[in-house]
Amino acid sequence: MESWNAAVQRALPSGFVLDIAYVGNVGVGQPQYYNLNAGFVAGAGAGGQPEYTAFGRTAASTMLKQAGSSYHSLQVKLEHRYTNGISSTSSYTFQKGLGFVTSSSTGVGSTSFYLDFSRNYSRLGNDRTHTFVQSFIYEFPFGKGKKWLNTGIASWVAGGWQVSGVLSLETGAPFTVTASSASLNAPSNTQVANINGSFHKLKGIGTGNAWFDTSVFSQPTTAAYGNTGQNAYVGPGFFNLDASAFRRFPITERVNLELRGEAFSLTNSPQFGNPSSSVANADFGHIDGANGGATGNRVMELAAKITF
After folding, report:
1. How distant, in Å, are the alpha carbons of 6, 16, 143, 244 from that of 81?
2. Bridge-based pairing state of the strands 122-123 and 130-139
3. Exposed, middle or buried: residue 13 (CB in 10 Å: 0-12, 13-18, 19+)?
4. Which of 79, 109, 66, 91 lies closest to 17 in space, CA to CA?
5. pTM for the whole structure
6. Structural domain boundaries enclosing 209
7. Secondary element (H or E) of residue 240
8. For 158-213, what is the HEC assignment?
9. Banded pLDDT at 291 (limits 50, 70, 90)
10. Euclidean distance between CA atoms 233 and 219, whole angstroms
11. Helical H segments across the chain, by residue range
12. Distance CA 74, CA 19 (A)
């Protein structure tokens, strides 16, 4: 019986290749930093640390604890093989990553919740639900051996040009709305905020323009976690377009000169990080120079290369 994938492929125009796949994995025995001397009693302060009563010790006793994660995704790729001077690849990923801790730049992340360890299992901080990438290469149909302007001065001027580009679109990265840990009073535990209402994006940028509605969040006043979750909210999405144009000039039969111009972040679109996410901060909910500042400035380069 013909597979669904094969049936779709047969229906596509010539030169197109479609791949659809489910990709998933389960991580076991993944390390995370765990403080044996964290506060395990809400409101008890140092009195809730196991080593304080016995030794008067409040410093952390850090070990590596084994934890796990899971990843599930639907991945689709449509490829147009090189024909008539053009080729392109379109890829889309719909994914979800869950785990006890998001790996840091050192490869190991830290535990956030000790009073209720199960709260650590949440959406990972680097999980972006939707990712779309479009790439292309186009060789202009001008010059020697091409369809148009294939002789004379016009062939020399217009021939040999190619353009290429990569467009990347991603939904935002998760973040946690935290609060002051004073009311929780349990060392090494992350305090999260309370929410009364729905999370609403305002998409404001800069001083005085909150990126999300902060009025629904509040500081917990009892010795307990707030009612929000770890990485429960999503920040700004990501847009980027890189492009290049280049031309080859034949000098001899074996030697060619290539001139290339490249633009990174061609549209000069800002790429914002996540907003300030602590209700204890004066700039809570804002994206400004200190929090989630913009990157993505346009960078242009010119280069020449001789090949032989």
Report:
1. 18, 6, 22, 20
2. unpaired
3. exposed
4. 79
5. 0.86
6. 4-307
7. strand 238-250
8. HCCEEEEEEEEEECCCEECCECCCCCCCCCCCCCECEECCCCCECCCCCCCCCCEC
9. confident
10. 17
11. 4-11, 50-55, 152-158
12. 11
Q: Residue 133: enclosing H or E segment and its boundaries? A: strand 130-139
Q: What is the DSSP string of 274-304?
A: PPP-BTTSTTTT--SSSSS--B---EEEEEE
User: Tens digit of pLDDT for each residue in 244-270?
Assistant: 998 887 778 788 888 899 999 999 999
Residue tagged 């061609």 (tokens): 266
Q: How far is CA 200 from CA 196, 213, 218, in A?
A: 12, 6, 15
**DSSP state for residue 58 in the 8-state scheme:** -
Q: Which residue has the tokens 């796990």?
A: 68
Report the C-alpha gap between 139 and 247 in whole angstroms. Answer: 10
Number of structural domains in the chain: 1
- Which residue's structure tokens are 């309370």? 194
Closest CA to 144 of 154, 135, 136, 134: 154
Q: Which of 170, 166, 146, 169 is nearest to 158 (CA)?
A: 146
